[in-house]
Specification:
single chain; alpha/beta; binds iron/sulfur cluster; two-stranded antiparallel ribbon; binds zinc ion
Length: about 300
């Protein structure tokens, strides 16, 4: 197969775009798609200071590298969850990546915050993932606010976003459907959140990571439930195989026509926020203690 741009031997075939590219032209395609995603949704201005959440997975590292090559001001943030084996591997991976590319990195250790994820897991009587997600989002925002960053970027790709949209649609969850998207406004103590890879699939990001020499990280979190999301992603893959391009249409159609309808439905139901009495983070909770400080209390009581 030949590259559709320069006719050299193709390295990557993309059915959804009815195209094949050599390595050099694929990198140019990847850049164009990130740029289109940024401009179509007004994600970034040239003078933004971006904090990129780096989990250690290929998506977030690919995002950090590409944004830095595009000339954006980026700093990585890795939250060390203190999970046996997987956290040390993820952290090492992120640290090597940033050192190799000369990129700034902030590491936040949850252990020092009294929020080591295995302790949180033992202290709570429910699956740990929602608490873990809440804690990570808390520190992404807090460190961004304290450091004067203007946007927090995450490496969610089209497959992640389409599967989340599918899941929210199956439940007709109006709250989530009203603000799902690649840009979440910064207001009331929250920094703007963006997902610049929203037009790129997992396959495309994996190819980019491979071609850019981003080392693969093979220590998955032992607490990962994975099943529901993998099922939804698998169904969308089947749809994509039968009808190439449908996944992007589904998500883009929602952004153009669906989200505003759900946002209207939700108008007026915005929660009133107050600063948490313990950490100052905005919270809608009646007792004015945010979710993360409540988790910290439970952990302290159980240890
Ligand atoms: S899978 Fe692991 S890292 Fe991911 S949210 Fe759950 S506990 Fe946290
Ligand atoms: Zn080419
Ligand atoms: Zn708090």
């Amino acid at each position: 197969m030949k590259c559709k741009v320069c006719k050299d031997t193709a390295a990557v075939a993309l059915r959804s775009h009815n195209s094949a590219f050599c390595a050099k032209c694929f990198k140019a395609f990847f850049r164009r798609e990130v740029e289109r995603g940024i401009h179509a949704q007004g994600l970034l201005e040239p003078d933004d200071r971006i904090l990129v959440a780096l989990s250690g997975g290929k998506d977030s590292l690919a995002l950090m590298l590409e944004l830095s090559l595009m000339g954006y001001d980026v700093t990585g943030l890795h939250v060390d969850l203190d999970i046996p084996r997987s956290s040390a591997a993820a952290r090492g991976h992120v640290e090597r990546f940033c050192a190799r590319h000369g990129l700034r990195l902030i590491v936040k250790e949850l252990k020092a915050e009294g929020l080591s994820i295995p302790l949180v897991k033992d202290a709570l009587n429910r699956p740990v993932c929602s608490a873990c997600g809440k804690i990570k989002r808390h520190f992404f925002n807090r460190i961004a606010m304290e450091g004067g960053f203007t946007a927090v970027a995450t490496g969610h790709n089209l497959d992640d976003e389409a599967a989340r949209l599918f899941s929210n649609t199956l439940r007709w969850d109006v709250g989530y459907l009203s603000d799902q998207g690649p840009r979440l406004e910064g207001e009331n103590g929250f920094v703007r959140k963006i997902k610049p890879l929203w037009r790129l699939t997992e396959f495309e990001t994996a190819n980019y990571a491979f071609l850019m020499g981003i080392e693969n990280h093979y220590a998955p979190c032992p607490y990962s439930p994975g099943a529901t999301f993998s099922t939804l992603k698998g169904l969308l893959q089947k749809l994509e195989a039968a009808m190439p391009g449908r996944k992007l249409d589904f998500y883009q159609g929602f952004l153009k026509r669906g989200r505003s309808a759900f946002a209207r439905e939700q108008a007026g139901s915005a929660e009133v926020l107050h600063p948490c009495t313990e950490c100052g983070y905005p919270t809608s909770s009646g007792d004015r203690v945010c979710g993360v400080c409540r988790i910290r209390r439970v952990v302290r009581e159980k240890v």
